[in-house]
Structure formats: structure tokens, C-alpha cells
Design goal:
This protein is α/β, with parallel strands linked by helices. The protein has helices at 37-44, 70-83, 114-128, 152-164, 180-193, 236-249, 261-264, 285-303, 318-321, 327-340, 345-360, and strands at 6-11, 50-56, 63-64, 67-68, 101-105, 136-138, 167-170, 204-206, 254-258, 308-310. The chain is globular and about 55 Å long.
Length: 364
């Protein structure tokens, strides 16, 4: 298994000099520190079979009215420096790291409609100068009010992206945002694809299995299950999540990432009273794997092995995953244990790298 190529389909990177440009990075945030390639290498252990990663935008501060995109553009410039092997002092990456940056998914002002996003993409092209692959864009809808995904401009922008061959990264949140986000995403997909030729329908990559409610019951019995023996599959929220995932999978242009689970499994892992990422205790991996199995298994059965891909969600995985020294390795172990017992060699290779390579247009 350790010889199977890996493409990490979902990571974030940010330098210490630009922390104040991140919309979520308040002074008390546990991730308020540099997370660059130096820290990513420490997290992965410099695995020889790690072919590289897909960088996904990190929610930089911005404004749609009046338009202010300077920080998203600064993020693009930062990733171009990584991909071009042109580091600045203190940024935490070297020229040799360039080979790992396989693709970038920048932020885009999708709600502003087709004309606005076309102008934005022109600027992105000018900044990247073909130094890094840009197969698509993301606009985090799980932070937005109801109706955002269904607004005419939003749908028009998605249809434009499909015609231009760009994909859309979908970030919705069942646990904290509500089930309505999945329902709205399904209707968004229907409108975006309606009347479009198959080859021009926008490809949608679903982040983090739609962030389902994976919190364990209290008190707990063996394997983290409730003392009365109820399984995750018995819970109403799981059944509703499953139903909407099936509706999303019914669209032929959807894929999904096996990622983001540690953020949704809290309070799975105990931590030191100092509440520092440096003091997170190593989790009980066997119990974590048993608990996560329900969502991983259902996602795989719904989408099939040709439409799911491994992603770490680093460094967000550090919160709840055991900290930077072990979190990436812990999630890799859980997904490896899950896939090797259910999939053949060809299917495993697809989940770990092949599907991401196909969706993002990466030669491997």
C-alpha cells in the first residue's frame, strides 16, 4: 500500500506574514501560525509515494460590494511562488517543493455572475502565467445565507464555468450549517445543468463529504457507539445526510473527497488543558476508524470508487486529529485501513490518486 501513489486532493497553505488577511484567523485561533510546505512535510513525514497536492483557497478577506479582491489575488501570487519554486525569505518553502503543487483552486466571486467571474478569471490567468494549473474555483457557500446558491447570478456563473471547462468546489456543512445546505446544493446542481450538453455541465467536487454530523454519543460503549448499541446509521441525521448525498451523486458530474472528518468528530480526541495543538494527545485510531467507517462506507457505496478521492484537509485536520505531528498520518491510516479491506488494487489506486488526477487534469 505504501507504494501506491497519493495525491492529497485538499490542503490549505498560508504564511505567517499574511495571517491577518484570512477571514477566520482571529488572534485566538489554534491555527494562527504559519502553515507552509515546511510544516506540511513534517505532517506527512515526506512520504516517497506522495506525488503532490491540490491547494484549495483559504477564505481570504474580500468584498463583493464594493469589489475588493486584493487578498484573494495575494493568495494566488503566494501559490504561484510555490509552484514556480520562487520562495521569499521566511515563507517556509523551497524551490524543490514546486513539484508538489499539482493544482490550485482559487477563490472566485461566483455570486456576481458570469460576466464578473469571466473578468476575474482573466486576471487569474495573468497572475498565474501558466506556472500552476487552475482547473476550477471555490466560493465557500456554507458561510452564506439561504438562497445564495440559487441566486440567478450564482447559477449563471456555474453555467459559464461549465462551458469554459472549469470545475466548482462545493463546500457545504450539514452539521453546523444545517441540512438545508445539502438540499439547496441539489437544486443548485439541477439549475446549473438544466439544458446543458453533457460535456458542458459544470463538474462539482464535494468537499469533506458535506461535513456530516459525526459526533459520538455520550455516554459511549465499545467502538464509540452509544451504550444502547445504536449505530450511526440509526440516527435521523445520518439518514437525511445519506438521502441528500444520493441526490447529489445522481448528477453525473459530481465527485467527493474523503476528507474533513476530524473536524466533525469532536470531541473524539482529548487534549491537554493548555489547549494548544502542540499538546494534543494521540487518538485511539482503531476506535476512530470504527466510528468513521459508517460515513466512509456510505459515501463509497453511493458514489462508487471512481468518484471518491483522498484528501487530508491539512492543516484543519490538526484540530481533532492529534496535532501536526500525527493528524495527517492518522487520517491516512484510517482511509488506508478502510480502502484496503473493501477495494481491489485498481480501485485503491483510483481513490488515492487516479480520480484526482482525472478530475483535476493532472498527469501522473
Amino acid at each position: 500500500m505504501d507504494t501506491v501513489p497519493i495525491i492529497d486532493s485538499h490542503i490549505h497553505l498560508f504564511s505567517s506574514s499574511e495571517l491577518d488577511t484570512l477571514a477566520w484567523c482571529t488572534p485566538g485561533n489554534p491555527l494562527r501560525a504559519q502553515h507552509s510546505l515546511e510544516q506540511y512535510h513534517s505532517a506527512t513525514g515526506r512520504r516517497s509515494n506522495l506525488r503532490g497536492f491540490i491547494f484549495v483557497e483559504t477564505d481570504r478577506k474580500h468584498s463583493l460590494s464594493p469589489t475588493d479582491f486584493r487578498y484573494p489575488f495575494a493568495e494566488i501570487d503566494w501559490i504561484v511562488r510555490i509552484a514556480a519554486g520562487n520562495p521569499r525569505s521566511g515563507e517556509g518553502h523551497t524551490a524543490s517543493d514546486a513539484r508538489l503543487c499539482l493544482s490550485m483552486i482559487p477563490w472566485a466571486p461566483v455570486p456576481l455572475g458570469a460576466e464578473a467571474i469571466a473578468r476575474y478569471v482573466t486576471e487569474v490567468k495573468a497572475r498565474t502565467e501558466r506556472k500552476v494549473r487552475v482547473p476550477g474555483f471555490r466560493y465557500l457557500v456554507h458561510l452564506q445565507p439561504r438562497g445564495t446558491m440559487l441566486a440567478a447570478g450564482f447559477v449563471e456563473a456555474l453555467r459559464w464555468m461549465g462551458r469554459q471547462g472549469y470545475l466548482f468546489e462545493l463546500g457545504v456543512d450539514q452539521r453546523q450549517g444545517g441540512m438545508w445546505q445539502l438540499e439547496e446544493a441539489v437544486e443548485m446542481m439541477r439549475r446549473a445543468h438544466e439544458g446543458m450538453e453533457e460535456g458542458r455541465k459544470v463538474v462539482v467536487v464535494i468537499n469533506h463529504m458535506c461535513k456530516p454530523d459525526m459526533r459520538r454519543p455520550t455516554p459511549r460503549g465499545p467502538g464509540g457507539r452509544s451504550v444502547d448499541g445504536r449505530r450511526p446509521e440509526d440516527e435521523e441525521s445520518f439518514k437525511l445526510w445519506e438521502g441528500w448525498m444520493m441526490k447529489l451523486a445522481a448528477f453525473s458530474k459530481t465527485s467527493v473527497k474523503l476528507s474533513g472528518a476530524f473536524s466533525e468528530m469532536e470531541p473524539l480526541f482529548a487534549h491537554d488543558e493548555q489547549e494548544s495543538l502542540d499538546f494534543w494527545a494521540r487518538p485511539d485510531l482503531k476506535e476512530a476508524g470504527i466510528w468513521a467507517e459508517a460515513w466512509l462506507s456510505k459515501t463509497l457505496s453511493i458514489f462508487g470508487p471512481k468518484r471518491v478521492m483522498f484528501g487530508s484537509d491539512w492543516p484543519v485536520c490538526n484540530i481533532g486529529g492529534g496535532g501536526n505531528d500525527v493528524a495527517w498520518k492518522n487520517w491516512h491510516w484510517i482511509v488506508k485501513e478502510f480502502t484496503t479491506t473493501r477495494l481491489n488494487d485498481e480501485e485503491c489506486r483510483a481513490v488515492w490518486a487516479g480520480n484526482a488526477a482525472r478530475v483535476y487534469g493532472i498527469p501522473i
